[in-house]
Specification:
single chain; alpha/beta; seven-stranded mixed sheet; 7 strands
């Protein structure tokens, strides 16, 4: 199991949009210090950044509204998000040991923090797998230290079965990281 790590989770979805990676981050926060970076919000988001400390070891950073939501500015907006996150992490004196991303669009984070010695994991959620071009997936796999492709979760599943699947994913991710480190 991954323990005593400073983990930066950068997601293409907000914390408030629950998914597998949020549950995994919450599970890992029991033995690690985790900061979750949400993407810029839409027009109904907070105007300024908001920080929610859910537990002693799990903090959610919401960077606020995206003033430039134009699709052709995607790369620029991801660079801005990286800058916002770096400033926040600098203020918190948080140097991540592990970066977890769930989209190839977030590779700027892995590039930036691999320079400081952090390892990077590309968590490929099953629900997004078919919408991401193969070239983007290959680029993410090449630029990260570890890759994990999540299994799809059946539609009819109870809470105990869901948590067992999440625990299995955490074990598999931990094995990948521990084996390669």
């Amino acid at each position: 199991m991954i323990t005593n790590q400073r983990i930066l989770c950068v997601s293409s979805t907000c914390w408030e949009e629950p998914g597998e990676l949020q549950v995994i981050a919450e599970f890992l926060s029991g033995a690690n210090n985790i900061i979750w970076i949400s993407p810029f919000g839409g027009i109904s988001s907070n105007l300024l950044p908001r920080i929610d400390r859910l537990t002693e070891s799990l903090t959610i950073y919401n960077p606020g509204i995206n003033f430039l939501p134009l699709s052709f500015l995607g790369g620029f907006n991801r660079s801005r998000l990286l800058l916002h996150a770096k400033l926040y992490l600098l203020e918190k004196d948080f140097d991540p040991d592990l970066i977890i991303i769930d989209s190839p669009e977030l590779l700027k984070f892995t590039e930036a923090y691999k320079k400081t010695g952090a390892k990077a994991l590309y968590y490929a959620p099953a629900c997004k797998s078919s919408t991401i071009p193969r070239a983007e997936k290959q680029k993410a796999a090449a630029m990260t230290d570890f890759n994990y492709k999540a299994q799809s979760i059946p539609g009819e599943i109870n809470e105990d079965e869901y948590m067992e699947m999440i625990i299995t994913q955490v074990r598999e991710i931990s094995e990948i990281i521990c084996k390669c480190s």
